[in-house]
Automatic annotation (TrEMBL):
The lineage of its organism: Bacteria, Pseudomonadati, Pseudomonadota, Alphaproteobacteria, Hyphomicrobiales. This is tRNA sulfurtransferase. PANTHER family: TRNA SULFURTRANSFERASE. It is found in: Cytoplasm. PROSITE patterns: RHODANESE_3, THUMP. The active site is at 448 (cysteine persulfide intermediate). It comes from the Bacteria. It holds the Pfam family Rhodanese. It comes from Chelativorans intermedius. GO terms for molecular function: tRNA-uracil-4 sulfurtransferase activity. It is an enzyme of class 2 (transferase). Residues 63-163 form the THUMP domain. HAMAP family: ThiI (MF_00021). It catalyses: [ThiI sulfur-carrier protein]-S-sulfanyl-L-cysteine + a uridine in tRNA + 2 reduced [2Fe-2S]-[ferredoxin] + ATP + H(+) = [ThiI sulfur-carrier protein]-L-cysteine + a 4-thiouridine in tRNA + 2 oxidized [2Fe-2S]-[ferredoxin] + AMP + diphosphate; [ThiS sulfur-carrier protein]-C-terminal Gly-Gly-AMP + S-sulfanyl-L-cysteinyl-[cysteine desulfurase] + AH2 = [ThiS sulfur-carrier protein]-C-terminal-Gly-aminoethanethioate + L-cysteinyl-[cysteine desulfurase] + A + AMP + 2 H(+). Belongs to the ThiI family.
Length: 492
């Protein structure tokens, strides 16, 4: 495998320097494994070599390799190697000549760094190479327009002019495993990412309060975190349907405590899922006083339900800081389309509760509801989820959910000839043009003659945060199902 035409020199994050030799070795091996996984996911063949406190990455393609390296936790920065030669002053002087066109007419500096034993200093190298570049350029050590760097390691010199920013932090998988409560919103995704950046391998738990369209949106957020950042690990998404839990909660719990009790129940679900993936902690996106359930008093009342460590990496962040990080990590455009389903709208929500009071409210609920809910927990391998599966599994329905609004996408004349009872006729272009007029609290089911246009429209609506589905198969299939149901009823 000849990869020498594209090489990078990569630098460990600052955390490496504080660790013992054995820990640094473990971190380096994990980091190299993750780098190879990242490049492989981008379709790049690669190998890695460590020399002192540097990693060399040899890759088959430059552009995708640079993009992937920027998302590997544990790298402070990295540089594309522009030239290399032996660490002989005369040879280095000849090699630096190729940078003359780059510095010509500009302010420049030469920076040298050595590792190993050599009979010259870094300053000697800088002066020698600077003399070669001086002809039509100006030395400016304080504010250069371009800097020619040379790193000398064990008899070899490596030249570069740029540093790409790395993700920093610790290599993913070196700090244990945790389970992140994921709602799909800005906060929970950023919280999971921040803990991944500290080396924690993360799985996810989604407590679904709003059906299949919502689940699909959350899976898309989890897929971004997995595909862009979780190199070297294989995250799982655990899914539990919380509809029955919420119904029981609303029937038994004082409305002003709905949100706090709901959080306790989600913590209990997280503890159950954590046991299945051997997670040592729970991660949440809570920030101090961002909502009523996140005051200090309420967090104190909620935490005992976890029965394990709860990590809250966003506690001191403002919403604007969280949203900025969501844009950086690639989840913002998805998260901004997802309604806040987890906020129960009880009147005058409590901001000062106690574990004793909230525990008494929770005890009034039927414990069997949560037990049955957890028994139905599903596990999704995020690495295996494809776009086709997200469409087939989450876009189509065979039955019409209760209280759903039916939308008939036929031409008006066809609608007058036949339509499902209760369906309203809407032209496809009218649906797209007036997307914002739909109610995000309602569920919509669309159908059309062949099932293709309604699926397209339902997908657009889902992407904008609506609970929308397409009836599978088009009108022909729908009418056949109706006829079969009528026939079965006649012979019952």
């Amino acid at each position: 495998m000849n990869l020498s035409h594209c090489a990078f020199i990569a630098r460990f994050s600052a955390d490496f320097a504080t660790k013992s030799r054995g820990t640094r070795t473990h971190f380096s091996r994990t980091l190299q494994k993750n780098i190879r996984a990242a490049l492989a996911r981008s379709g790049v063949r690669a190998r890695t070599v460590q020399a002192h406190d540097r990693l060399f990455v040899f890759a088959s393609e430059e552009t995708p390799a640079r993009a992937a390296l920027a998302r590997v936790f544990g790298l402070a920065n990295f540089s594309r190697i522009a030239a290399r030669c032996s660490a002989d002053p005369a040879e280095m002087a000849r090699t630096v000549e190729r940078f003359r066109p780059l510095v010509e007419g500009r302010r420049y500096a030469v920076r040298a760094r050595r590792r190993g034993n050599h009979d010259f200093s870094s300053v000697d190298v800088e002066r020698c190479l600077g003399a070669v570049l001086n002809a039509n350029a100006t030395v400016d050590l304080e504010n250069p327009e371009i800097t020619v760097h040379v790193e000398i390691l064990d008899g070899r010199a490596y030249f570069f002019t740029e540093r790409d920013q790395g993700a920093g932090g610790l290599p993913l998988g070196t700090s244990g495993r945790a389970l992140a409560l994921l709602s799909g919103g800005f906060d929970s995704a950023v919280a999971a990412w921040r803990m991944m950046r500290r080396g924690i391998a993360v799985d996810f738990l989604f407590c679904n309060l709003a059906g299949g369209a919502y689940e699909r949106q959350v899976i898309q957020v989890a897929k971004v975190l997995t595909d862009l950042w979780a190199f070297g690990t294989r995250p799982w998404l655990f899914v539990v349907d919380f509809a029955d839990v919420v119904d029981e909660l609303k029937a038994r719990v004082e409305p002003r405590l709905w949100q706090v009790v709901l959080k306790r129940l989600m913590y209990r679900a997280a503890a159950s899922a954590a046991g299945r993936c051997r997670a040592e902690a729970i991660i949440t996106g809570e920030a101090i006083s961002q909502v009523s359930s996140q005051t200090l008093a309420n967090l104190k009342a909620i935490e005992p339900a976890a029965e394990m460590i709860v990590l809250r990496p966003l506690l001191g962040l403002d919403k604007s800081e969280i949203m900025a990080q969501a844009h950086r990590i690639g989840t913002a455009l998805l998260s901004e389309k997802i309604p806040e389903y987890c906020a129960l709208s009880g009147p005058s929500p409590a901001v000062q509760s106690t574990a004793r009071k909230v525990g008494a409210q929770e005890a009034a609920m039927d414990p069997g509801v949560l037990e049955r809910t957890l028994a139905g927990m599903r596990r999704i391998d995020l690495a295996e989820v494809t776009g086709d599966e997200l469409r087939s599994d989450y876009l189509f329905v065979d039955d019409i959910p209760e209280d759903a609004q039916l939308i008939d996408c036929q031409p008006p004349a066809h609608y007058r000839h036949w339509h499902l009872p209760g369906a309203v006729n809407r032209a496809p272009e009218d649906i797209v043009r007036n997307l914002r007029r739909f109610d995000k609290r309602r569920c919509y089911v669309l159908y059309c003659p062949f099932g293709t246009q309604s699926a397209y429209l339902a997908e657009i609506m889902q992407q904008h945060g609506y609970q929308a589905y397409a009836l599978r198969g088009g009108i022909g299939a729908i009418r056949k199902r109706q006829e079969a149901e009528m026939e079965a009823a006649l012979h019952a």
